[in-house]
Write a structure and sequence with these properties.
This protein has 339 residues and is α/β, with parallel strands linked by helices. It contains 12 helices and 13 strands. The protein has helices spanning 41-51, 66-77, 116-119, 127-132, 141-145, 148-163, 181-191, 202-209, 218-232, 278-291, 296-310, 322-326, and strands at residues 9-13, 17-22, 34-39, 56-62, 85-87, 93-98, 107-111, 134-140, 167-171, 197-199, 236-246, 249-258, 261-271. The protein is globular and about 50 Å long.
């Protein structure tokens, strides 16, 4: 509550996961111990937004055991409202990460089958209550892809939000290990008419059109996204671009399309420490800018800064402060010690 007025929150819905990773870029066959952190796309966004002072609520289903309780406590530590996190079932969704290096790519293995979230059905959630104090709802294609039940819940929540006049943002977030392109296309076509703000890439456009072709330049990719924006009349559609230069060095760029205008920003060069969660950090930055009435250019500045900084932070969560994101020099080439 602020000045006697109840502040509405950004509601995020999706699966929270436990990430297990060998130390020092080891392969699993070499590892004798694993590092453990919690994450998951929507949880990552909720933590970042809350860390920057935005009121956030997170809805999910975790197991009714100490692992599920620890996940909830992680969210509460960062100020995320967990009133709509339900505890039932016995299994936490897991994913195992072999961190790549140089020419060896990072490899992710999921163990989500029959997790508490995957098995939860729409009637397990209090959908009306979840949206009662919400000003915004964010979901992703991951929740559409993990199970039929999760897809039904996601679609029901999105449709209800639009009925209530609540803005909906959606990140395609296609994961080939979760479902086929054909299954994804069918679900995307169903959800997109209810979306106000979209996060995606040119590959998502090609998936929707059932096309396979090479698109090389960032400008060409933006043109494809302009066509998608026009087709579904999104308020905005955001996209990112990464150019891999050498080993773990990458150039990052981004763009936003809104009506007949578009803005592009970057590239900014980063040396990658941990890539997981970086896309979620971009989404969080964009949502923060939109929720705080930033201009589109200011929103891109904040989103790209968050995107870039997360590459330097280990773990799924974006824990850089708002001041650190705002103070990041997108054009700077030198890093100095702050004293």
């Amino acid at each position: 509550m602020k000045d006697g007025v109840i502040m509405k929150s950004i509601m995020l819905f999706g699966e929270m996961l436990l990430r297990l990773t060998p130390s020092n870029h080891q392969l699993f066959i070499q590892a004798s111990q694993l590092n453990m952190v919690y994450g998951g796309s929507e949880a990552n966004i909720a933590v970042a937004l809350s860390n920057w002072g935005e009121k956030t609520s997170y809805a999910t289903c975790v197991p009714n055991n100490n692992i599920g309780l620890a996940a909830i406590m992680q969210l509460r530590q960062f100020g995320v409202n967990t009133d709509y996190v339900i505890q039932q079932g016995h299994k936490m969704g897991l994913y195992f990460v072999e961190e790549g290096h140089s020419i060896r790519p990072t490899e992710v293995t999921y163990d989500r089958q029959n997790s508490a979230f995957v098995d939860a059905v729409p009637s397990d959630y209090q959908l009306e209550e979840m949206l009662e104090q919400a000003k915004w709802l964010h979901v992703s294609g991951i929740s559409l892809g993990v199970s039929k039940q999760a897809r039904e819940t996601t679609l029901a929540l999105v449709k209800l939000a639009r009925q209530k006049g609540i803005k909906v943002s959606f990140d395609f977030n296609y994961r080939a290990k979760l479902w086929s392109i054909e299954e994804a296309r069918e679900a995307f076509i169903e959800i997109l008419p209810y979306v106000n703000v979209c996060f995606g890439s040119y590959m998502d456009v090609l998936t929707l059109r059932q096309e396979k072709r090479t698109v090389k330049s960032f400008d060409e990719k933006i043109e494809l996204l302009k066509e998608l924006q026009k087709e579904y009349n999104f308020d905005q559609i955001f996209t990112t671009e990464r150019e891999i230069l050498d080993d773990n060095v990458q150039n990052l760029s981004c763009a936003v399309i809104a009506g007949t205008e578009h803005h592009k920003l970057g590239p900014v060069r980063v040396n990658v420490l941990d890539r997981i969660g970086t896309g979620d950090s971009f989404v969080a930055g964009a949502l923060f800018g939109l929720a705080n009435n930033y201009s589109l250019q200011e929103t891109l500045d904040f989103a790209l800064s968050s995107f870039a900084l997360k590459h330097t932070i280990v773990g799924d969560f974006q824990v850089a402060s708002k001041e650190a994101v705002q103070g990041f020099d997108l054009n700077g080439e030198k890093v100095i010690i702050k004293r």
